[in-house]
Structure formats: structure tokens, C-alpha cells
Amino acid sequence: MVKKIFSGVQPTGNLHLGNYLGAIKNFVELSNDQTSECVFCVVDLHAITVRQDPKELQNNIRETVATFVASGIDPKKSIIFNQSRVSAHSEAAWILGCSAPMGWLNRMTQFKEKAGKDKEKASIGLYSYPVLMAADILLYDTTHVPVGDDQKQHLELCRDIAQKFNNDYGLTDFLKVPEPLIQKQFSRIMSLKDGLKKMSKSEISDLSRINLTDDKSQIVNKIKKAKTDPLPMPSNFGELEKRPEARNLLGIYASVTNSNLEDLIKEFSGKNFSQFKESLSQVLVDKISPISLEIKKLLNDKKYLDEILLDGYEKANKIASKKIENIREIVGF
Ligand code: TYM
Q1: How far does the centroid of ligand 1 lie from the alpha carbon of residue 197, in Å?
Q2: Is ligand 1 within 6 A of the CB of residue 208?
């Protein structure tokens, strides 16, 4: 069976190691798998749920495309496009929003986190954002959605919305219920400044994350300054569980090098953090620097990036237009 893959990334700048290890690395593997058809979406409609500078947004859309390509996604094999261009996304979001009960949306933890204390001031878009995400996925009859752990609840909601819409209109398998693809390990990369907080582009301190555009000296400096505890490197899993920063840094090492965590614990057991950090910096520089250089190179060729987006739009629009046409008929338009 052909796997239909769909995933999205917000063009809000500062794509970081968490986005890469939690999602983009997985996109690359899936895009190279002959049995998968992949659609990767730059979700600009999602980005404007919080205020964006229009000029910067335009640059960030191109930078996200550049990051996909620099990481190893071949735009000839996978569809890469930006969401706002395919109007079926907004239309499907509205229609699905008329099936989705508010009670389900009220449970979304990411809204509560992002809206903060003053949720009366948060935009309606920020609140209904998971419905748009469901629309993204369901328009493409997606079977699998690769994401980081923080999107798990949104995917569960997407599955519920698909079933609810099918039930509401007496259909059995019209909207396909997708499977999440969340890695068992390292699907939540934590801040370099706090092992209990997710690595995030909205964190004020740039030292909390490795950006995919960081150069060698920035990477080395950030790892040098990464928070640790005063003990030597842990010698077993039990110890690792109780030491969030050690766990995160070893997890990053394991994920970047595709190695086994248990072997790494053995290799570094009892050593000083400074020794471990030197090795970690090296593997990160080896992995991230070529991507960072390639992103910068691609950003100089706006024409090429815009061509990718145009080609992707044409292909995505073909699929999504067909599905929205069926949806329109089903609801009676
Ligand atoms: P976004 O743009 O916040 O993040 C893009 C992807 O990166 C993952 N991610 C992480 N993974 C591990 N550790 C971290 N610290 C970390 N931070 C981010 C996210 O889980 C995500 O996979 N709502 C989505 C975008 C979206 C989407 C979709 C995804 C819109 N429509 C349809 C899948 C399918 C978002 O805001 O991701």
C-alpha cells in the first residue's frame, strides 16, 4: 500500500534542532521511501494566528522551503507548497469547524500554553488552529502524519473530527482517519537552558536552541553554555531519568548520530560534561553546518525557491480542489 504522508511546518523563523530531529529528519527518510507519496506544507495560515511582520513572513516562507531542500527533501519527488495559496485549506477548515464541538477544542493544551493568562485577547485563529490543521491533513487523504510529540493532541483531534464529519453526513470512509508517526525516542527535544522545557522558536534566549542557520562557532558556543548538573555523566538509565539536562543532551547526540542511547551511556559514563560536550559539538557541527550553508546558498536563489512553491502549489491544488469539491457536495452547496 502507498503511504500518503502530509506534514506542515510554520514559517515563523528560527527553525531549530527540535524541528529537525522531531520532524524534518523524518520527512527526509519518508521522502526517500519508494512506497510513500509526500506532501510538505509551509503553513503560513497557521503562522498568522499570532502577529507576523508581512515582509518577514515572506522571507520565512522561502527560508522554510530552503530548509526542507537543504535537509534533503527533493522537490521533484515530494510536493512542497505554501498553505495560503491553496484556498481549499481555509474552506475545509470552516466546514470542519462546523462539525467540531467547542468542547473538544477547549481541551487543547497548546492553545492554553500559547494564549497564556489573557486568553480573551488571543485570536480566534489561535483557538481554531487545530481545525485548520485537520483540514490540511484530511484534504489529501493522508494515511500518515510525521510530527514531533507536541502535535500529538492535535492529531488525535484531527482523527476525531474526521470520524465526526463522516458520522454527521452518514459516510463511512470519506475522510480518511490518519495515523500519527511520532518517533518513540527523541520526539521532544528540550531547551538547552532547561531540560524540562521544550526547545522552541518562541523562547526569548537564543542560547536555548540550536538554529538550523547557526554557524560552527554559534553551535560550539551554545553547547558550551548548555545547562548541565554538577555530577559526572550518568552511568545507567535510572540515573538518566532523574537528570533532565543530561538526558536531553545524550538524546540529541543519539538522535543526530542514529545511535543507541544505552551504548552512549556506556561510552560517556563517569566522564566530565565538558568532555561529552566537545564530542556533542563535533557531531552537531558535522550534521548542522552543511544544512546551514546550503540554506544560505538557496536563499540567494529566490527564483528557484519560488519555482518550487509554484510547482508544489499546482500539484497540491489539484488534489485539494477535488476533495473540497466532494466536501461541498456532501454538505449541500
Ligand atoms: P511547528 O511549526 O511548531 O513545528 C514543526 C514540527 O516540528 C516539531 N517540533 C519539535 N519536535 C521535537 N522537539 C521539539 N522541541 C519540537 N518543536 C517543534 C513539531 O512537532 C512539528 O512536527 N501545527 C504544526 C504545523 C502543522 C501541521 C499540519 C503538522 C500545521 N498543519 C498538518 C502536521 C500536519 C506546528 O505548529 O508545527
Answers
A1: 16
A2: no
Indicate which residues carry an active-site annotation. 114, 198, 201
pTM: 0.97
Compute, in angstroms, the gap from residue 22 CA to the centroid of ligand 1. Answer: 8
Say which CATH topology domain 206-297 has.
Tyrosyl-Transfer RNA Synthetase (1.10.240)
The answer for residues whose C-beta is within 8 angstroms of residue 171's C-beta and 6 or more apart is: 165, 330
Q: Would the CB of 189 count as within 6 Å of ligand 1?
A: yes
- Report the pLDDT averaged over residues 292-298: 97
Whether ligand 1 lies within 6 angstroms of the CB of 11 is answered as: no
At 187-222, the pLDDT tens digits run 999 999 999 999 999 899 999 999 999 999 999 999
Q: Which residues pair with 9 in a beta bridge?
A: 42
Determine if ligand 1 sits within 6 Å of the CB of residue 15: no
Report CA-CA distances (Å) from 236 to 66, 185, 246, 291.
40, 17, 11, 33
- 53 vs 156: CA distance, rounded Å: 31
Same fold, 3-187+302-331 and 206-297: no
Residue nearest to atom 14 of ligand 1 (CA): 18
Q: Where are the domains of the chain?
A: 3-187+302-331, 206-297
3-187+302-331 homologous superfamily: HUPs (3.40.50.620)
Q: How far is the CA of 20 from the centre of ligand 1 (A)?
A: 10
CB atoms < 10 A from the CB of 167, how many? Answer: 11
